[in-house]
Each structure stands twice: as structure tokens, then as C-alpha cells.
């Protein structure tokens, strides 16, 4: 039987053209009023998934 893709993970992780796993940074959903503009700018954009999590997440995505 084929393995199913983890639907929560597929919504959060994007695979780049070169095969890297990209994710959004945490902490930019709420309580933004008290965070400085510098802080919120730092949280924008995407970052690579940690090396230690890479194998586990690839398995969840079925890659």
C-alpha cells in the first residue's frame, strides 16, 4: 500500500527547485503590535528546514 502525504506538512513546507525544503518563520501570526518593525521584518520570508528535521519531513511528504 502507498504511503499518504501528511496534509499538515504539505501546507507548511515548500520544495525549492534545487530540492531544499523551505518553511515560513514562526512568530509572525499575532501579537505583532508589541514586536518592533525590525523584529517583524526579520521574521518575514522563508528559511530552510533544519538539517536534523530534513529526513523526517521528507518522509512525511513522501519525497
What percent of residues are in strands? 5-15%
Distance between the termini: 16 Å
Rg, alpha carbons:
14 Å
Average pLDDT metric: 96
Q: What is the total number of structural domains?
A: 1
Spatial strand sequence of the major β-sheet: 1-2-3
Number of helices: 3
Second-tier CATH architecture: Irregular
SSE run = HEEHEH
CATH-defined topology? Factor Xa Inhibitor
Show unreliable segments. none
Class by SSE composition = alpha+beta
Overall description:
- This protein is of the alpha+beta class.
- It has a single domain (7-61), classed as Irregular (Factor Xa Inhibitor), CATH 4.10.410.60.
- The chain is 38% helix and 14% strand.
- The chain is built from 3 helices and 3 strands, in the order αββαβα.
- The protein has a 3-stranded antiparallel beta sheet.
- A hairpin with a 5-residue loop joins strand 1 (14-15) and strand 2.
- The longest helix has 11 residues, at 51-61.
- The mean pLDDT is 96.
In short:
By secondary structure, the chain is an alpha+beta fold.
Tags for this entry?
63 residues; alpha+beta; Factor Xa Inhibitor; three-stranded antiparallel sheet; elongated; Ribosomal_bL35; Ribosomal_bL35_sf; ribosomal protein
Topology, please?
Elements: H1 7-12, E1 14-15, E2 21-24, H2 37-43, E3 46-48, H3 51-61
Antiparallel strand pairs: 1-2, 2-3
Protein name: Large ribosomal subunit protein bL35
Keywords: Ribonucleoprotein, Ribosomal protein
Pfam families: Ribosomal_L35p
